[in-house]
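Supplementary notes for students who missed Thursday's class. We covered one full example, reproduced here. Read the sequence, then the structure, then the short commentary at the end.
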Amino acid sequence: MSPDKKTKNVRSDLLLKVINLIPKTPLIRNIIRTLAYIFVFYISYVLSWQLRFDFAVPSAYTALWQWGWIWFLPIWIFLLIVFKQFDALMGFFSLVDLSRVLAATISYSCVLMIIYLLFPPHSNILTRGVILINFVLLTGGFIGVRLIMRLLYEYTRRPKDKDSENLKRVAILGAGDVGASLVRQLRSKHGMGITPVVFLDDDETKWHSHIHGIEVYGKPEDLKKIAKTYKIDGAIIAMPSAGSKRVRQLVELLQSLKLGYQTVPSLEQLARGKVTVSQLRNVEIEDLLGREPVNLDMDNIRGVLKQEVVMVTGAGGSIGSELCRQVVRYAPSQLLMVERSEGMLFEIEQELIRTGFKEVILPVVADILDKERMRQVFNLYMPTIIFHAAAHKHVPMMELHPGEAIKNNCLGTALMADLAVEFGAKRFVLISTDKAINPTSVMGATKRLAELYIQSLFAKNGDKTLLMAVRFGNVLGSSGSVVTVFKKQIAAGGPVTVTDKNMERYFMTIPEAVSLVLQSAAQGKGGEIFLLDMGKPVKIEWLARQMIELSGLRPDTDVEIVYTGSRPGEKLREEIYSNKEQYVPTEHPKILRFVSEPLNYEEVRMFLDSFGNSLHNGDPFFLKARLKQIVPEYTPEEIKPKNK
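Structure (token representation):
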């Protein structure tokens, strides 16, 4: 270490020791703060007189400028209390604090001006010049005190030189408001062990400028040439509004440079105030698969949901719970959350209570297959808007238990739709799936039969109750989804099981899917099936490899990928629509509407009733054959009866 640096360190240590000698009790702090405020007030008062008269104050004003400050001090202290300057934490000084300081000094100057106007000119109480100069000096001095106290606060908290050497040097990708806020918080939270050293941003107008003393060097791709120069150990992606395509590019860049990386919370989380920008997280697969933010017609959705009694079935599930979160924002008079699992229902209930919706929500423990219970619920609360999300959805499991899929997905949907019509609900929305298109699985076939039923019921009853269905593909992060399975397999050290190298699926995030469900519900005229635009299909193998790399591991080296072959009922690729359905444009670019000729209601109803006790005879082959009779496009994998 050089002699100059040693001297500097000795001085710094000495200053820290002096600062640390000051007792840190609230009383002592308030005394020091009050003395500092009085000192600034006194100096600004005396200087304002001296400057007004060029340091030659006439004898007529001598007593006033020397002792008059004592008369005005109580007014100043009172205004500081009014504008909460004694409540402010001295280690912080933001724009809000600045506005309060200005409010206090402006108010004080206005009081002085009123005093000046109340007394005749020859009284020599004040002059206009003194009032103006005093305002400038008092404001500047007060701001200076607050800044000095903030600097001292940060100085005492900054890491020592030996600790600074151990800090992780990171590049901030994104020089917007979020990136700037992140730098401020990182500098105040040295315990995180991170120090920002350079900004990189896509906006050329920001290049070669500085934010909080840190250079905005250029675009993120410049990281390749400056990583060694700036001794960068990692990067933080501070672009919460960036599309998934850009995030993928940045992740690939950082992976190629073998730099660690994290990202800030999503815009939604930041907007809701759930987290701060410094609560960094790992990049998730949702960040790479998500798409551009969906623009919703909020007024249209609010017009449908406001002051209505909204029911959500399957409220504890992935889709149902997100429906509850979004529906309450549109001011329904009541939200009925129907769920047969009291544990899952309790979780979403407590979450909504914490976010301030206790008076709106009503948890209802009930099974949609219990006709008398559901009739009681409808009779008591008279729901007007119903989102039917309760369903069995796991494809391989429903192949083994088709009777349960038919009961829940078909008979349960029919019961809920019948009650909606009987009790005069305005809208009934079935949450369906893209697997209902030319289905090869029991789950898909039962969802298709549910669609057929609500179409036929709407055709029979007219537009008194608008019945419709909304289809979408795999939902990222939902229970039992491939993403959840892969996460558990990676955490266990592998192997990660992929059914087929060529298998593809459409993916959506849960909030995106639900927001488009609400938009579809607002546009529905009844009898139609909406399909959400899900972008391009994603290869499951690519998904597995990306998730392994995002975990900081190497595919096929650290974590093995095993190909197991397609499971019963699975397609290699899902389809967008059926040839039997006619496309009709909608007002929203992300929503497709399909209509088809409905089946005769009596025939569909009779078919559902005909299952009877056969649902429990344990013969999957028979039930699949029966489903194919009414859903002819269903092509099940044959399951031969056992012991024959």
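Commentary. The chain is about 50% helix and 15% strand. Residues 1-12, 15-19, 639-644 have pLDDT under 50 and may be disordered. If anything here is unclear, bring it to office hours.
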